[in-house]
Specification:
Blueprint: H1 18-29, H2 32-45, H3 50-73, H4 80-88, H5 91-120, H6 129-146, H7 148-178, H8 197-212, H9 228-257, H10 260-266, H11 270-278, H12 284-315, H13 334-350, H14 357-377, H15 393-406, H16 414-441
Helix pairs in contact: 1-7, 1-9, 1-12, 2-8, 2-10, 3-8, 3-9, 3-14, 3-15, 4-5, 4-14, 5-6, 5-12, 5-13, 5-14, 5-16, 6-12, 6-13, 7-9, 7-11, 7-12, 8-14, 10-11, 12-13, 14-15, 14-16
Amino acid sequence: MTEVNATQEPALKRVIGPKLLLFFVVGDIIGTGVYALTGQVAGRVGGALWLPFLLAFVVAFMTAFSYLELVGKYPKAAGAALYTNRAFRIPFLTFMVAFAVMCSGITSASSAAIAFANTYLKEFVDLPGWLIAPLFIVGLAAINFRGVSESVKTNLVLTCIEVSGLLIIIGVGVWAVLNGSGDAGRLVEIDTADQTALVAITSATSLAFFAMVGFEDSVNMAEECRDPVRIFPKAMLWGMVVAATIYVLVSLTSSLLVPADELSAAKSNALLKVLDVGAPGFPREVFSAIGLFAVINSALINMLMASRLLYGMSNERIIPEVLGTVHPLRRTPWVSILFTSLIAIVLVSTVDIGVLGGTTALLLLLVFAIVNIAVLVLRREKVDHPHFRAPTIIPALAAVFCLYLVSPLSGRPARDYVIAAILLGVGLLLWVVNWFAMRASGTKDRAPTAP
C-alpha cells in the first residue's frame, strides 16, 4: 500500500543514501557562487582572497551543527521554517523565515540561469538571454518533476563535472607556481584604500558566505533520505569540508596568478582570467562547458530545495495546503515545483539578479542566526529517538557571528538592506493575503505537528 502523509497525499519516495547525500551537499555548495563571485570578493578584500572564503566556511560550519541537531530531532522537509515554528510558535515569523529561504533558493537559481545565458554559453553561441534564461528554468522544472531519484543522480554527475573544473584551476596554479610564475606576496594584501582591514575582511566574508550556503538545503530532503538521523552528520560535515578545501585552493591560485584589481575587473569571468594567465594554451571552451554544468547543478539543487520547502510548510499548514499536492505517479510535489518555477521565470525576465547575491547572503545569515537560537530554545523539547547534539557554545557563537555579518558593522553595502526590505515587503503582502484566505475558509493558524 502506498504510504500517505497527514493530508492523505502520497509520501515522498525515500531514495537518497549517504553517498548521494554527500554529493548533494558538495554540489549544492560548489556552483554559481565560486564560479561567479571570485572576482567580486577580490574587489572587496584584495589579494588575501582566501581569507573571506575560509572565514565564511567557519561560520557556516558552526551553523551546520545546529542544523544537524534539528534535522536529527525532526527529520522532515521544511528546514529552518519548521525549526522556527517549533521554537517560537509565531506563525508570522515562521512564514517570513520560509519566505526568505525560498527567495534565496529561487534567486540563486535565477542567478545561475542568467550566468548560464549571459556568461558561459556565449563562449559557444550568442543567443538572447531573455529567451534562454526562462527556457533554462523550464528544463529544471521538468527534471524536478520527473523525480528526486533522477534529480539527485543528475546532481551526482554534474557535481563531478563542476569539481573537475575547479581542480583544473588548482592544477593550473600548481603548474604555474612550479614554473616560477605567481606572486606569493599578494596572498597577504588587504585593500585598505578607503576602509579598515577589518571592514575589508568582513565585507568580503559577508559576500563570500553566499558561496558557502547550500548545506542547509539538504535538510529539506530529509523525507526522501533513507535513515536521515544516521547519515546526515557525516554527509553534511564532510561535504562542507570538501567544498571549503576546494574554495581555499582556488582562491589561493587566483591570487597567486592574477592581481586583485584584474580579478575584480573580470567579474564573473574571473576564473577564465586565471586560466588565461596560468595556462594560455588551455582551450577556454572546455572550462566554459564545465562552467555551464556548474550553474545547471547549482540551479537544479536550489529549485529542488525551494519546492520541497513549500511542500513541507504546506504540511504544517503555514501556507495553503494545495502546495503540498503530490503527483500520484511521480510522487513529487508538482504544485510547489510549478509555483517556484513561475516565480523564477518572472525574476529572470524582469530583474537584474546580479545585484541580489549580497542580499541573498544577508537574508540567509539572518535565517541562520534564528536557527542557531532555535536549537537552544528547543533543547527543552525531547524526542523519543537518539540524535546528534551540538555543543552549546557552538550555536551560541554562530548566532553572534551571523548577526555581526548581517549588521552594517561588517561593511555590508546599503543596497543589500534596501533590496532585502523590498523582498520582505513582498513577503508581508503574501502573509496578509494568505491570512485572509485561511480566515475566509475557516482555517486557523496552528502549532506544528509532533515529529
